[in-house]
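ARCHIVE RECORD
Type: protein–small molecule complex
Small molecule: JEB
Source of inputs: curated submission
Record status: active
Notes field left blank by submitter.
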Amino acid sequence: MRTSTPSGRSAHRIDVVSIFPSYFDGLALSLLGKARDSGILDLSVHDLRDWTHDRHRTVDDTPYGGGAGMVMKPEPWGLALDQLAAGGTRPTIIFPSPAGEVFTQATARDLATREHLVFGCGRYEGIDERVFEYARDLGEVRLISLGDYVLNGGEVAVMAMIEAIGRLIPGVVGNPESLVEESHEDGLLEYPSYTKPAVWREHEVPPILLSGNHGAIAAWRREQQLERTRIRRPDLLDD
Ligand code: JEB
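STRUCTURE (tokenized, with ligand):
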């Protein structure tokens, strides 16, 4: 069993279960370039229907108690989770849900420390509640919401979460030189960025940035961060 990469870093394994696995083709390409080959991140996307046994590969059924729409059947989920948790790794099992805790940069930092993540993407009206109960025998279960709006399923939320988590893992594409300078890492919004030309369509780059005075530039950027945060996201300044 591989527990570390040639560089000595711990390997990260991510499994995604979805009835639309091809959603994740672009993510796999953009996130994993060098990380996959070097063994830093082992991402596998699985089709939930591979764990069905009927001719129609059925994953949904009508809700007990009535109501609109369909609910995902528990049996395929049970078989999928059994297989992906085999080996006793006790993965962190994440179900995106509009009824979950809200995903933040702190959530991403926490999940980036986990060696094995399993994401279960629901569709329709969601997954039979007993799947979440059962999954607790296999690992730590987290119901996580991307935000306070309604999506049609978990796939888009999982893509956003994996992108946010992946860029915190050293060696994964998008991992920047300095994470501390970024929006949210220090609890403030980012300062504005500019590049050449110095004047574009009569819009000028703030002259301080052309001054070469690095102390003054750092102070100006901090002021910009505070001002933008106060105007756009005062909730971030409350704590
Ligand atoms: C996640 C999902 C559905 C009620 C209405 C619609 C599985 N921030 C978020 N909004 N919506 C979801 C989410 C996250 N994360 C989300 C999983 C599923 C929506 N639906 C549709 C479920 N219940 C099905």
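CURATOR ANNOTATION: Residues 96-98, 122-123, 125-126, 145-147, 149-154, 157 surround JEB (CB under 6 Å).
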